[in-house]
Design goal:
8 strands, alpha+beta, 3 helices, 149 residues, five-stranded mixed beta sheet, three-stranded antiparallel beta sheet, single chain
């Protein structure tokens, strides 16, 4: 099922992506994207995916601008959820190794390009951070797991 962000949701995503990018640069945070894409476009795709996931599951997303929250949203029973996004049909669920020390409970892969997304897979922290999933995709070590379709 394709989840299309409505006009207000698109404006919110653009505001959050720009605000988070600016806050990260001010703080001197390293850009940890795992591909060659433009950072702001990657941020917009990511925030859009977070909003699409929250919309599809009737959850409230993290709307903060002032730092990298542990979770993108919290589930109905208090579980922490980290939404990952890719533009690639063959994309995998990715997580950087340092997140293993304080992981979310659930990781979700959302594929698409702003403003259209599809939730394609989900994994628990144990499934994603399994030793056999540690690989290098050309940007340093990362956990990569094929989920869903």
């Amino acid at each position: 099922m394709i989840i299309r962000l409505e006009l207000a949701e698109r404006k919110l995503a653009q505001f959050l992506a720009t605000g988070r990018a600016n806050a990260n640069r001010k703080r001197g945070s390293e850009d940890r994207k795992q591909g060659p894409q433009n950072g702001l476009i990657a941020d917009l795709d990511g925030v859009g995916a977070e909003l699409a996931f929250a919309k599809a599951h009737n959850l409230y997303p993290d709307l903060s601008l002032d730092g990298a929250p542990k979770a993108d949203c919290t589930g109905r029973w208090g579980e922490t959820i980290d939404v990952k996004t890719t533009r690639y049909a063959s994309g995998r669920l990715l997580a950087v190794p340092w997140k293993r020390a304080d992981p979310c409970d659930i990781y979700c892969l959302v594929k698409g390009v702003f403003p259209d997304y599809e939730i394609t897979g989900i994994a628990t922290r144990a499934e994603l951070f399994a030793d056999e999933n540690l690989t290098d995709l050309g940007h340093g070590p990362t956990y990569a797991l094929r989920v869903g379709r």
